[in-house]
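<goal> How does this chain fold?
<body> The protein record starts here
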Amino acid sequence: MPRRKLENRTIEVILLESNKHLGERFEIVRVKPVFARNVLLPKNMAVLATANMVNRYSQKIKAAEKERVAKAEWFKWLLSNIEKDGWLLFTGKVNKDGTLYAKIDESDIAKLVKETYKLDVEEHFFKMKKKITTIWDFVVPFLYKDIKWDIAVKVNAENPEVIEKKEKVKISEDDQKVSEDSENKEEVKEEMKDE
C-alpha cells in the first residue's frame, strides 16, 4: 500500500490566536487531524479552514498577512542594525574558570535587544540549543518565517581579575614545573658525567 502524501495526513486550520509553535493569529497552517480535533478546536484556538470559514475570515487573514510582511521587514531592519554594530554584548560575573554565574538564554537576548534598540522581540524567535555558560563569542540563530539570521553574541567577564589571578597562578605553576624539569635534567646529566 503506498504511503499517503503529507497533505493527506494533515488538515488546514485558521489560527484564532498566536502560538509560538504553530504560527500567528489568522494564519492558515497545516496540523495533524488528531491535534486539531483534541486540542485546537475544543479550546477555540483554531477553526477548520473550509471554504466557508476562509471566506468568513478573509479580511482578517489579509490584514494579518500584511502585518506579518511588515513585521518581517522590521526584523530585517533590526537584524541588519545588530550586524552593523558587530554583536550583542553581554557582561556577567564569572568564577575562576570563566563560567558565568547567571546563564544567558533566549529571554536575556530579547531583553538586551529591547534595552539596546528599544524594540520588543519575542524570545522564541531566538533558537538556542543550550544556554550560554562561559565567556566567549557565540552565534545565536534567529528564525521568523523565511528570515534566517545568525546573530553574533559576545560575552565578557564583569570581573576579569578573577580569571587573571588564576592565569597568573597557572603561569607561575608552569614556570615552577619548567624550572623543576630543567633542574632534574641537569642532575641526570651530572650523574651521567660521574659514571
Remarks:
- Strands lie at 11-15, 28-31, 46-48, 88-92, 99-104, 132-134, 136-144, 147-157.
- The two ends are 88 Å apart (CA to CA).
- Helices lie at 6-9, 33-40, 51-56, 58-85, 106-117, 160-194.
- Residues 169-173 have pLDDT under 50 and may be disordered.
